[in-house]
Amino acid sequence: MTSPRLAALSLAGDLPGVLLDARRLAASAPGFHGRRRAGQGEAFWQYRDHSPEDGARLVDWRRSARGDRYFVREREREAAQTAWFWVDPDAGFNWSSDPKRPAKLHRARVLALALATLLARGGERVGALGHAPRRGANAVDRLALDLAAPMRDAEAPARASLVFLSDFYAPLETWRSRLGAAAAAGAGGALVMIADPAEEIFPYRGRTLFQAPGAKTEALIGRAEAAREEYGLRLGEHRRAIRELGARAGFETMFHRTDHSPAPALALLSALIEERRR
Fold it and tell me: pLDDT digits over 80-102, tens only?
């Protein structure tokens, strides 16, 4: 019988390449501050000036003896937070219009794992929705395996920081239900809308057969260029509706194209999650 780990590895495909790309991306990005906030814990954080409200009990006498001021030794808050990730499992998400360009799924996993790397360095937990969260040296590798396994909808943990990575082409009702359930649990975070450039500029001309990846759905258009304007209008309307759904549910929406560098997208995503965690 195949173990769950081996089954996940068989589904991973380009997992080593994804992890390598994610680590390179994270290496070029500023890190997180993690749990470095004053609170109850064991790890030293910083010294601060003593105030009358502290009383004599909190004075660090060894540090204070070096000068004429009293200091308090603050400890770092130990309650790690968790960031959760959901990556679109639809077959159409694993698509690229150019074999030299990464598929949307590949870019989504790279962004998720790069952000997870930054979070893990800061002492936070990371997890794929529907799986156990991870923390520590192997957290990102385990997350990569979880993201490579078949993704499913799962109940969002209460007050979670949650990142959805998708092209968001599923019907609005699907996303209304998904985001509504997350909002009901007090979760919030980011919607990372990932697109292939061909989905933006619709470069097709003449007689063209369109086929949905992983499905039998297809459409033959005699003059593809004649559909470009209507296609653009419908795509814009759908994306605006997704943004509105996200805003009502407490999720910021950001857009990324696979022919663009992932570095600015990671920086923006990092800022959104950092703001959520404050």
Answer: 588 999 999 999 999 999 999 99
